[in-house]
Structure formats: structure tokens, C-alpha cells
């Protein structure tokens, strides 16, 4: 049982404000992912939760108890570092048992706990080795094992997979998700990789410039981004954006004038007026090649991934990305027509805020957990 | 076809290394060899490589009225204590300086090491006057303070560099594991710093062990060190070459062995594997 609550966390480094009032609630057994570009403050936020940095103001509460003045040792958390931070002079066993040794746990009990964690992570054969004799993936496992042995209330992960190669990253991602289920633990995970965030999180916290842009389930963020930043950050390849003029506003949506004709986007346009300029956002996977489509562009580049092909299109001087079937035969310099389903499109005001959709996506409220149990 | 090209730089390198080795080793080997030669052979006009070795110079060094023992003990005590203090304080200060977030930290570090750059000749007279007022002349404490004034900045600077190489993640991981700051330092940082500590200690010890200027100025009859004993053999009536070379050997050998030991300690060797 472990919950975490952050109330208006502010962190200053000298005159630079790195965290600008973060509010967050992490429920018991939740897998929360902090995601954002480099320098957005996600690692600082994690370190503040861990107690490695002190918050300049605001409250950090673990299980309802304020822990601001409590050191990292007493917060009962475990953290896996990006660099693994294994103690190089200690064997795997000593690395994993270091916290128990400090807590003066008897040797036999210590051994038992280390063996149990090693079994979960398939490290039993490696217990006598030094970290330098391990591969990257094995080191990562030891770092996780060290956290498990501690039996923490909350697990903290600081970009733990960023030093691994692509294949190992996918494997560890699945293992971490499985671990979350096996341990029934609350986990907070920092990454700049939105794929990791989407695939692992129950709840994603998107950060930018030290502020929270949006908190929600992966599907919520994908289908109902609160602003242009979140829309652009979540989803790969990036969402396409186009400045458009409003032609009409009605109860069924906002009418736009597009280069190839008009279209109605089903969003709430209460404070929108005819003549306003908005930004239309369409995900590359929601664009489709269509001989009768209202938009057209020249193919600048194709990226064939096998199953799908990304087409980079030049549409009125702007680059658009369209994700098409892997078997399409179009080549560079060809002119193609394309269209989109207005119900999948997004509209953003000039301040970046999105207009609410008239209908919520059926999956928007679904957390990863449901799909994950079936998937594994 | 590429073999000769690779072979050539290798040969040049080897030749240069051999020349350098000769340049450094010949005087030392000659000194050690000669310390075992009878007086007549040492000063023989045709230098002799083959001779019947004798320990007479060493025997006369460590016996009789003016034995080398007190000098040796003085040297060991003064160099040992000043090294110990320099390493302990240097280690703590270096850790602090490496980890603290401070504006102008680099300037502070440079200021500390810049005090080591002052020429001994420039500070020796003011220090003499200070020591006289403080009754530190002809005391162990006086010489220890004198060596510390040069060794401490050096130790801080060197240890800071070693600590900079050690990722702070390790201490932080230890603290998350439940260690206090001191426990993290004691169980994680210090064992990894052994190479740095040994290197710093040896270099500080060498400075104090070899020093002549401070010892000549600040020591008195009860605190004279080995370099002073060696200098006393250069008298107006003549030079006792045998004893002088034996003293030289006694001074150089421990340091040469220690130097060889330092070579083994490479900080990278131990920290490898800690972080990717």
C-alpha cells in the first residue's frame, strides 16, 4: 500500500526555476510515467520525490505523511538509476544486499531475500560476479534487483532503459511491466521515450519547462491531448499541424476552409468566432491516401518499415507525414491526393489549447492495466 | 605492404624509450651499485662495473656516534604525519569541493592549488619568522605544518579530480539504499577512492621525504631529516662518497618501490562497470 501526493512542488536551482508548481496524485499500485523532452524537469521531479533534491516549496506526501524533511534513506523508496549505479567493488550479491546490510538484517535472512529477488530476475548464476563482468542488460537487472530486495513502498526509475540497445530495451520494457504486476507495487518511471510511456503507463504525466502539461491515461493523451504540445509529443511519427481559418461554428462542430474544400471538425467551438485562425492537427496514421481526397502533396521521402510506410509529403510548402500501408507502390516525386476523417482531427487555439471533442473516445478512460493483463 | 609502416614508428618509439630509460636509470643504478663499492673503487679513475660488494658504508651509516637512525625516524615521522593529515583533510575537502554546488567553484579550486605554486624560496623567510614567533623552530610540528602548507592544497586538488571522476549516482544509490551521508562515503566512496588516496599519499610523502630547503631552515639538532644528514657529509675537509651514496640509496629506494606500487592503482580500473 503506497500512495504519493505532490502539492505545488517548486524547485529552484539558484535563480532558475526548474519545477514550477507540480501537483500530482499517484494511487496505490499505479504505474505512472513522467515523460517530456530533455530539460523538462522530469528527472529533477523524480529526484525530489526520492529525497536526493529538496523541494524549494510545496509538500511531498507518501501515504499521506509529509516527507519533505525526511532523508532519502527513511522515505522507504527504491530507485533505479539511468547509469545503474552499481557499486563496482561489490559482487552482485553484495550490491543487492547492501540495503539489508545497512539495516542490519541477519545474514541468513539477507541471503534468502537476495536469492528470492535473483530468482525473479534470473540472476542466480551471477550472484558472485562483479558488475564489470556483466552485460548492460544484466547490470540493469541487478539494479532492479537491488530495488526489489529493499521491498520499497514506491519504485522510482530514472530512464532505466536508455543505455540498452533497441532489442534489449523492448525486452526489459516487457519484463518491467510484468514485474509491476508480480510485485503489485507503485512505480514511477521517467523517460523521454513516448513509446515507453504509452506501453507501460497506467497514467502519463507530460512535462514541459518544469510544468505539467497533462496527466491522463495513454489513450486519453492520444485521443484528447489538452494542448498542441501534448498532441505533438505523444504519438509517433509526430502529428501534422496546419493553420486554418474558421468558416462557421455550430452545435455539431467547427467548419474550416481547407485548401481542397471545407470540412467540419466535431469539437466544441463555444468561444470560437468565424474568421479566427486555428491550428488543425491530424495524426499521420489518420491521414489516408485517397484519389478523391481534398488534399494533395508531392512525396518528398518514403520510409518503408515493412508493415507500414511513412510518406513525407510537401503540402503547400509544409511537410506532412502520412502513414500508409506497407505495400503501397508510390515513389518519391509522385503527387498523391489524401484525406482524413474529421472525427479523428484536433483543433487548437492560438494559445495552443485544444478544443474539446464533442464525443469522448471510448478507450480514453482505459488504463494500460486492462490491455496489459491480456497481452502478457 | 603496411607492415613496414607500422614497424617504423614502433622502432622509433622503442629507441626513444630506451634512451629515456638510460637517462633516468643510469644515475640511480650507478648510485646503488657504488654504495656497495669500497671507497677505493668508487673514486677509481676508470669506473668499474665488476667489484667485490661491501656493506661497510651502510654499517658505518647505522652505527657509531652520528648514526642515521634518528634522521631516518625524523624523516619517517614528519613525512608520515604530514602525509596522513594532508590525505585525510584533502580527501574530505576534495569530496566537498567536488560535490558542492557553488558559483565560482572552479575559481575556488584554482585558488587552492595556486597556493601550491608559490616558490619555496619566496615563502621560506616569512615562514621562518612566523615559526620563530610561534616557537615552532626545531619541532616536528613546525616541519609538519611547513609540508602541509604545500601538500594540503595539492592533496585537495588531486582528490577533487579523483572524486570528479566518481559518478555521484553511486553515493545517491547508497543513500537511497538507506545509508547516511557518512555511510555512503565510508562504504561506497572510500573503497573506490583507494587508488586516489594511495596516489595522493605517495606524492605528498615524496615531497616531504625529499625536501631539503624547509628541513634545513626550520629543523634543529633534534628534528633533522635524512637530506640534512646527507648534506652534512659534504664537508670542507672532503666528501665521504661511500656514505653519501649509501644515504642516497636509503632515500631513493623506498620511494622508487612506492612509485612502482602507485602504477598499479588506476582509478578507472576499479570504477569500470559502475556506470555505463
UniProtKB/TrEMBL annotation, chain A:
Q: Supply the InterPro entries for this chain.
A: AAA+_ATPase (IPR003593), ABC_transporter-like_ATP-bd (IPR003439), ABC_transporter-like_CS (IPR017871), ABC_transpr_MalK-like (IPR015855), ABC_transpr_MalK/UgpC-like (IPR047641), Mo/tungstate-bd_C_term_dom (IPR008995), NA-bd_OB-fold (IPR012340), OB_MalK-like (IPR040582)
GO MF term (any one): ATP binding
Residue ranges occupied by any ABC transporter domain in the UniProt entry = 4-234
- Gene Ontology CC entries for this record: ATP-binding cassette (ABC) transporter complex, substrate-binding subunit-containing; maltose transport complex
Keyword field contains Transport: yes
Give UniProt keywords alphabetically: ATP-binding, Cell inner membrane, Cell membrane, Membrane, Nucleotide-binding, Sugar transport, Transport
Q: Does the keyword Cell membrane apply?
A: yes
Provide the protein name.
ABC transporter
TrEMBL record, chain B:
**Membrane topology for this entry?**
Multi-pass membrane protein
Principal localization reads: membrane
A GO CC annotation given for this chain? plasma membrane
Transmembrane spans:
71-96, 108-131, 143-163, 184-209, 244-262
One matching Pfam family, short form? BPD_transp_1
Which UniProt keyword terms apply here?
A: Cell membrane, Membrane, Transmembrane, Transmembrane helix, Transport
In this chain the ABC transmembrane type-1 domain maps to 72-262
What's the family?
Belongs to the binding-protein-dependent transport system permease family. MalFG subfamily.
Report what the protein is called: Sugar ABC transporter permease
* Source organism of the structure: Salinicola socius
Amino acid at each position: 500500500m503506497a500512495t504519493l501526493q505532490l502539492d505545488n512542488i517548486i524547485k529552484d536551482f539558484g535563480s532558475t526555476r526548474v519545477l514550477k508548481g507540480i501537483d500530482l496524485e499517484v494511487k496505490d499500485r499505479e504505474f505512472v510515467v513522467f515523460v517530456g523532452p530533455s530539460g523538462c524537469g522530469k528527472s529533477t521531479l523524480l529526484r525530489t520525490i526520492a529525497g536526493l533534491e529538496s523541494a524549494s516549496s510545496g509538500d511531498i506526501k507518501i501515504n499521506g505523511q509529509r516527507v519533505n524533511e525526511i532523508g532519502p534513506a527513511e522515505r522507504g523508496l527504491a530507485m533505479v538509476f539511468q547509469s545503474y549505479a552499481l557499486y563496482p567493488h561489490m559482487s552482485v550479491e553484495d550490491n543487492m544486499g547492501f540495503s539489508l546490510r545497512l539495516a542490519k538484517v541477519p545474514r541468513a535472512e539477507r541471503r534468502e531475500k537476495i536469492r528470492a529477488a535473483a530468482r525473479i530476475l534470473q540472476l542466480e548464476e551471477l550472484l558472485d560476479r562483479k558488475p564489470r563482468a556483466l552485460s548492460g542488460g544484466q547490470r540493469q537487472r541487478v539494479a532492479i534487483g537491488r530495488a526489489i530486495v529493499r521491498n520499497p513502498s514506491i519504485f522510482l526509475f530514472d530512464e532505466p532503459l536508455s543505455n540498452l540497445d533497441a532489442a534489449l530495451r523492448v525486452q526489459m520494457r516487457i519484463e518491467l511491466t510484468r514485474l509491476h504486476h508480480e510485485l503489485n507495487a507503485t512505480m514511477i518511471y521517467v523517460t523521454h521515450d513516448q513509446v515507453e510511456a504509452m506501453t507501460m503507463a497506467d497514467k502519463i504525466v507530460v512535462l514541459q519547462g518544469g510544468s505539467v502539461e497533462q496527466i491522463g491515461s495513454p489513450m486519453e493523451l492520444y485521443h484528447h491531448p489538452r494542448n498542441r504540445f501534448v498532441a505533438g509529443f505523444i504519438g509517433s511519427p509526430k502529428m501534422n499541424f496546419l493553420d486554418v481559418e474558421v468558416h462557421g461554428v455550430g452545435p455539431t462542430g467547427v467548419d474550416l476552409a481547407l485548401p481542397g474544400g471545407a470540412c467540419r471538425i466535431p469539437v466544441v467551438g463555444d468561444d470560437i468566432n468565424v474568421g479566427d485562425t486555428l491550428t488543425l492537427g491530424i495524426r499521420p496514421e489518420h491521414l489516408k491516401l485517397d484519389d478523391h481526397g481534398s488534399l494533395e502533396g508531392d512525396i518528398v521521402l518514403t520510409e518503408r518499415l515493412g508493415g507500414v510506410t511513412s510518406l513525407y509529403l510537401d503540402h503547400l510548402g509544409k511537410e506532412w507525414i502520412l502513414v500508409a500501408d506497407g505495400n503501397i507502390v508510390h515513389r518519391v516525386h509522385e503527387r498523391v491526393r489524401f484525406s482524413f476523417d474529421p472525427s479523428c482531427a484536433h483543433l487548437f487555439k492560438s494559445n495552443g489549447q485544444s478544443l474539446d471533442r464533442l464525443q469522448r473516445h471510448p478507450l480514453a478512460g482505459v488504463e494500460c492495466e486492462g490491455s496489459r493483463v491480456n497481452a502478457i | 605492404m603496411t607492415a613496414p609502416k607500422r614497424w617504423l614508428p614502433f622502432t622509433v618509439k622503442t629507441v626513444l624509450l630506451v634512451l629515456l630509460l638510460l637517462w633516468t636509470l643510469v644515475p640511480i643504478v650507478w648510485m646503488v651499485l657504488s654504495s656497495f663499492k669500497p671507497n677505493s673503487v668508487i673514486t677509481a679513475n676508470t669506473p668499474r662495473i665488476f667489484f667485490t660488494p661491501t656493506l661497510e658504508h651502510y654499517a658505518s651509516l647505522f652505527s657509531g656516534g652520528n648514526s642515521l637512525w634518528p634522521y631516518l625516524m625524523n624523516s619517517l615521522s614528519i613525512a608520515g604525519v604530514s602525509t596522513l593529515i594532508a590525505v585525510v583533510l584533502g580527501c574530505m575537502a576534495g569530496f566537498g569541493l567536488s560535490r558542492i554546488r557553488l558559483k565560482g567553484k572552479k575559481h575556488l579550486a584554482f585558488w587552492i592549488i595556486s597556493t601550491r605554486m608559490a616558490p619555496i624560496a619566496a615563502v621560506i623567510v616569512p615562514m621562518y619568522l612566523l615559526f620563530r614567533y610561534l616557537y615552532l623552530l626545531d619541532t616536528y610540528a613546525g616541519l609538519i605544518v611547513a609540508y602541509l602548507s604545500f601538500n594540503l592544497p595539492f592533496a585537495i586538488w588531486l582528490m577533487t579530480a579523483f572524486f570528479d571522476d566518481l559518478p555521484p549516482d553511486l553515493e545517491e544509490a547508497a543513500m537511497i539504499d538507506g545509508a547516511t551521508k557518512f555511510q555512503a562515503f565510508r562504504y561506497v566512496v572510500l573503497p573506490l577512492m583507494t587508488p586516489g588516496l594511495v596516489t595522493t599519499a605517495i606524492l605528498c610523502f615524496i615531497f616531504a621525504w625529499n625536501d631539503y630547503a624547509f628541513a634545513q631552515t626550520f629543523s634543529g639538532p633534534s628534528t633533522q631529516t635524512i637530506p640534512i644528514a646527507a648534506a652534512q657529509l659534504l664537508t670542507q675537509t672532503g666528501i665521504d662518497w661511500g656514505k653519501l651514496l649509501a644515504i642516497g640509496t636509503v632515500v631513493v629506494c623506498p620511494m622508487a618501490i612506492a612509485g612502482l606500487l602507485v602504477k598499479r592503482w588506476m582509478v578507472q580500473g576499479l570504477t569500470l562497470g559502475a556506470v555505463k
